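Hi R.,

Here's the chain you asked about this morning:
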Amino acid sequence: MDKRTDGERRACPQRGRRYDAERRQAALTWAGKHGAVAAAAKFGMSERSVQSWAKARGGTTGSRSAARGELRPAVKRTAAVTTSSGVPASVEEPRLTTSAERARHGRRYSVAEKKAILEQAAAASVSAAAKASGAARWSIYDWQRRVRRASAKSPDAALAPGSSRPKHIAGKLSEERHHLIAETWLKNQALGPRQVAQLLRRTDALRVGTSTVRRVMEEQGYVPPKIKVERRPSRRYEAVRPNQQWHLDFVQFFLHKVKLHLLLIEDDYSRYLPGWALCEGERAEPVIEAVEAAIARHGKPEQMVVDGGSGFFSWRGESQLERLCADYGIDFIKASKRGSNSKLEALNANVRKELLSKIEFEDVADGRVSVARWVRSYNCERVHEGLGGLLVPGDRYFGRTAEVLAQLERGEPVVVPGPLSPDARALELFRIISRGGRPELWLLGERVWPAAVPAPPEA
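And here is the predicted structure, written out as tokens:
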């Protein structure tokens, strides 16, 4: 290979050639006289480099102008505008670097220039004024409309350039709504943005988007949780009426190093909690008391689903809960498959998130008061995602679903009567079933026909 000297050394193709200021100046001078193509051929550089240097310097040159040997420097063009007195007024036109900027911004006129153009349009015509000044005819028409509409304002204020930002933003949140969203979330900090938005629609008849609620909550200190979603096969089961199936389970937590157990009874159809109990162990006595109190208040269920906890089963023979279910004619079911008791497992997670992690109990009595308050809020105030997001468990359990949805469609806030009100209760009073091929008549949760045969006395 032939060795080249430093003067003949070529540039690296990846980095390109480097030129000093003197060589650039000489190329620009030659391009101004003979064109960019001739300058590139004379000095051994690319035509694009010469054009970019000319553009950065203030001149404009393209392939056609370079072929003609033109290199136009940056000058300020003036448009001749004649005033009413006949004295020509020079209108300086600002220089725009590229054609894209010229197309985007267009020509800007000051108030004095607009007034002079309008005077010429009034004296001659709009077309003559547009041709003389270089302004568009529709711009002159727009200035004339502004001046005609400015009855109370001065023409200078009407011709002044205004902001392109709209005065009213449709999606802008008012201060009242902002405070209402913030207060609702601060009272229910365990709820997410979607639940808060649906709660506002239910209680205050306020329609607001989930993204808006999330933005307000983040301003108040909300941190979205990091949830790992586990893909499972879709297996959804739901009862078809209230009191068809009840779920029972315990939630364990510590109170001042004392282990407590919270028993929850949930209706599968409505997610309503007909009963609960706070005890110091998973024993059968509090379970029996809570179940009997729930049956006395809401009627007996058809099925009862439990897990393998010690409060529901015994080591030998039948447990007390099994004998109680047999006396009432309730089907006793043990949840053996994964997901059979999933609704109550989700409820236990909500209890830990919304109650146990937010409130510190002073003693067991204070704990019972707090649990009773939370159960009341859960049944009658807190919207449930499993019910569509707008209903609470009490709506489904007491048969008020159609009435509540009608109120929401009318844009009215939902007012739910108390759970003890007779208007809010929808209990099953009369029922006929077939057991073993023999009909049975039940009234108010008790079998009235055939009559129960008393057991023979023990010898």
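One quick note: The first strand starts at residue 78 and ends at 82.

Cheers,
M.
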